[in-house]
Amino acid sequence: MAGDLWEGRIVIVGASLAGLRAAETLREEGFTGSLTVVGDEPYPPYDRPPLSKQVLLGQAAADATGLPMRRDPDAQWRLGVRATGLDPPGKRVLLADGESLPYDRVLIATGTRARPWPNEREAALDGVFTLRTRDDAAGLAERLAAGPRRVLVIGGGFTGSEIASACRERGIEVTVAERGPAPLVGALGGTLSKLAVGLHRAHGVDLRCGVTVTALRGNGQFTGADLSDGSRVDADVCVVAMGAVRNTEWLVDCGLAAGPRGVACDAGCRAFNMYGIVTDDVFVAGDVARFPHPLFGYQMLSLEHWGNAVAQAQVAAHNMVNPGPRRRPHLAVPTFWSSQFGLNIKSVGVPVFSDQVVIAQGSLDERRLAMVYGYQGRVTAAVTVDMAKSLEYYQSLIETAAPFPPGPGAADGRPLLTEFTLPSDVPDPKELSHGPTVALTGYLPDRRLTVVRPTG
């Protein structure tokens, strides 16, 4: 960078949670140069989790979800304009309005967008929605408030399940069509997804698993859908919740290791080029990043999690303005949460990086439990249902590569309720109609790993 690392020009592409937290961290670290944040939406950074919860329930307006700023990042905000290309040799970000922004360092934080319904004509029917942006949530909330006869949700992942929960809380009839064997199976595995099946059905959801939607019907207005088992669902609102698409198309031909799975980077958030060589002026953070994690077999992880976006953005910003010896790795253990059908589901670690599970506390019947996941004899994840206070204990087991199953004396001091382990039954993502919130795209190691923990 011009002068030293604390001067020069930094461009952040993505006015997202990760983009905002990175901008704030840059200033907190002492960066005094020019800072520009580019965003394709016309709004300042806003919070996405409330969109599928409070906004759909009518408890909050979509335009009231703005993210609070820890401090003014003193940035030039280029909102409502899309980045169309990156020129690493010329160190420029190309914009849709024809302008280009010079940089000394650039952060890619373009995140994801909702996967659209593949048939464009059917997707354009009035009453067909996706849920990702503030505008998406405002439009869908308005339609739900009007009291539709029935809502069809395509996809039983976290977003689809939260939408179904909001519909039932509003008293709206809802059908969920999921290609896989159960809701949430792609995130939590087959054993815990049995709880999800019971939750949906106990709350009156018309749950259809093992089927796909073959066509959306309507003449201008959505009226229903055909399913692969020959049945038809009559509804006047359809929400396509088939996962996310990582926003990497604008990086085509720029020489980076970017593709449908995200932008590959090292543990310090520096992007790889297409030959696997690390760059030193292009950084990545948030949902669009693919990064290795020593706790999970150095798998390349792609995470669509709020906490990961914050932690990774802070690491990326720190490393952008600090010399090599002072740089640090992104080693945060992934966490996420979901609120649906009156239950709070929280996770730590990577449940899909597992081969066995054990119920450490509670039970499926009680709908209050802690389930611990293991891979090749060590703890890799834990999921709690209405038992979140236990997660800190299980996180320490993950971070120290504790043996699986965990020994007597779980988080509450009592012995395991059962010593019988079960297969975690993680499905192939190809079997799901929704994308996984965690994508593992590296090799599967066959040896015990040495754990690297951050210091300081």
From TrEMBL:
<feature type="domain" description="FAD/NAD(P)-binding">
    <location>
        <begin position="9"/>
        <end position="313"/>
    </location>
</feature>
<keyword id="KW-0285">Flavoprotein</keyword>
<protein>
    <submittedName>
        <fullName>FAD-dependent oxidoreductase</fullName>
    </submittedName>
</protein>
<feature type="domain" description="Reductase C-terminal">
    <location>
        <begin position="336"/>
        <end position="406"/>
    </location>
</feature>
<dbReference type="InterPro" id="IPR036188">
    <property type="entry name" value="FAD/NAD-bd_sf"/>
</dbReference>
<dbReference type="Pfam" id="PF07992">
    <property type="entry name" value="Pyr_redox_2"/>
</dbReference>
<dbReference type="InterPro" id="IPR016156">
    <property type="entry name" value="FAD/NAD-linked_Rdtase_dimer_sf"/>
</dbReference>
<dbReference type="InterPro" id="IPR028202">
    <property type="entry name" value="Reductase_C"/>
</dbReference>
<keyword id="KW-0274">FAD</keyword>
<keyword id="KW-0560">Oxidoreductase</keyword>
<dbReference type="Pfam" id="PF14759">
    <property type="entry name" value="Reductase_C"/>
</dbReference>
<dbReference type="InterPro" id="IPR023753">
    <property type="entry name" value="FAD/NAD-binding_dom"/>
</dbReference>
<dbReference type="InterPro" id="IPR050446">
    <property type="entry name" value="FAD-oxidoreductase/Apoptosis"/>
</dbReference>
